[in-house]
Amino acid sequence: xxxxxxxxxxxxxxxxxxxxxxxxxxxxxxxxxxxxxxxxxxxxxxxxxxxxxxxxxxxxxxxxxxxxxxxxxxxxxxxxxxxxxxxxxxxxxxxxxxxxxxxxxxxxxxxxxxxxxxxxxxxxxxxxxxxxxxxxxxxxxxxxxxxxxxxxxxxxxxxxxxxxxxxxxxxxxxxxxxxxxxxxxxxxxxxxxxxxxxxxxxxxxxxxxxxxxxxxxxxxxxxxxxxxxxxxxxxxxxxxxxxxxxxxxxxxxxxxxxxxxxxxxxxxxxxxxxxxxxxxxxxxxxxxxxxxxxxxxxxxxxxxxxxxxxxxxxxxxxxxxxxxxxxxxxxxxxxxxxxxxxxxxxxxxxxxxxxxxxxxxxxxxxxxxxxxxxxxxxxxxxxxxxxxxxxxxxxxxxxxxxxxxxxxxxxxxxxxxxxxxxxxxxxxxxxxxxxxxxxxxxxxxxxxxxxxxxxxxxxxxxxxxxxxxxxxxxxxxxxxxxxxxxxxxxxxxxxxxxxxxxxxxxxxxxxxxxxxxxxxxxxxxxxxxxxxxxxxxxxxxxxxxxxxxxxxxxxxxxxxxxxxxxxxxxxxxxxxxxxxxxxxxxxxxxxxxxxxxxxxxxxxxxxxxxxxxxxxxxx
Length: 619
Ligand SMILES: Cc1cc2nc3c(=O)[nH]c(=O)nc-3n(C[C@H](O)[C@H](O)[C@H](O)COP(=O)(O)OP(=O)(O)OC[C@H]3O[C@@H](n4cnc5c(N)ncnc54)[C@H](O)[C@@H]3O)c2cc1C
Hints:
alpha+beta; Butyryl-Coa Dehydrogenase, subunit A, domain 1; Butyryl-CoA Dehydrogenase, subunit A, domain 2; Butyryl-CoA Dehydrogenase, subunit A, domain 3; 8-stranded mixed β-sheet; two-stranded antiparallel ribbon; binds flavin-adenine dinucleotide
């Protein structure tokens, strides 16, 4: 099954909802015009459709292999990665001074979504490399930056994030890997690391000549818990002062995991300091990033970026699963039309298949819109000249990151599951590829912090920290959109567009109901936060999902307003697209937004989970 980049929707969301023009008007983005962005998106589409998308299925069937610590990927995978690096795609969002192209995050987000849709497993390598670049640029000293960043940005080397250990998954306070400072000897000033990391994505491979691991570890006299974790760079090959590669470091791949999905992405068990390599002495040679004992704090800086990127993987996977299901539904002939037909019809005619396809499409488009709007806020937060505007946008972005990650990835599982359902029995058979999307999607709500960890972040750090002020300000903005829908429904009525007027009215009513549900949930959380935290956190995931449903609905409502304005003013060209966009938004308003009320009820019943889990002997 081929993949076609949904350029029309991407461009619409970018321009009409995320405010590309405003982003490009900020200082630092003077070199980019809307036309240049269009050209980049066209080129990106050509690359991912032609080079990366064809890897997806073969990569699932022929995963990388391990032998004696070395990992071999398929020749096609290697070629595609070289082409990715040569095309400058790794540097898209990184600063020009480090060899990148300095594009706004919102534009890079589009390109990253596309490459993920083409092959989730392939894209994990660049995704993690982005995280390492961001960490080094944020907290690394000049020497670390000069040594590693240019080759990471160019795609000559790749990066990994080493957090997880067998006893330390969601709870990184339990990290045990040790880092001992070197007072003398050939590696004076560095640290020697020993320990085991598991589940390390692209921890070993043959795509690039060097792998730069970012590793969480403890120094010998570090305090217990999260306050005693430090961050280190550990290169697979040490790098000499002149930039040439030196001895092989003592970090070894003990094995690769056998996984449910993303087979083409090697997930490595890494041993630090097992006595291999060419660095005499005990432990892998590593270099401190920033200050000792502040590793987790630094990781949190990166995590917003990495979590956002994984959220985008969810949107990408949803788009690919949707395209495949739609193509199948248009071909598969089965059953007569419910209203009667001369012969069997394609399954795309059956109301329930239409419901499934519309659900897939509505969730995909809504999560895309939320994520681009978040990325644009991040661009304004880092480039707008006014400090208050920067702060407001940063708060908005940080509030949305756990929603982009948690909601979009949970939606991806739902969408991929519906994709299997649309295929019927053929969906359960591997040959169609629908099953692969379902298997690949399942990791998304797990890694880079499970959905529960995102929900804890949303409530603990993003909501209760500012007393719900950001959430409240967003509700007010949504209220203004609902008022605009009032006027739009009235205008449609006056123009005798009965069906449109009714659909706009329903979207508006359900948006207001969802806002009310979130408002009540917020009140509940504020009231309980002082004395009954268990009740609050029992409803944390329903609260995250409610927030996602609501923000998706808000963006779909804004999409309707934008489409109608474009049609009225005769701009925007493709009337078929604008009609289809509205239809999807109306479906979201009617079928998806009502979920918010049920989720709100679950949030407010948090205490009940606590009481009945104990009585049901769940603890
Ligand atoms: C394919 C794959 C690739 C990965 N890549 C990397 C990588 O590159 N680098 C890396 O460091 N790690 C990586 N990981 C590890 C991944 O980040 C962890 O698996 C994930 O963070 C969850 O940790 P865990 O598996 O130990 O689950 P646990 O922490 O044991 O969680 C199990 C369950 O308990 C819940 N839970 C745990 N704590 C809480 C809490 N405080 N509140 C509410 N619920 C909670 C979780 O939500 C989950 O449902 C990868 C994992 C996989 C499978």
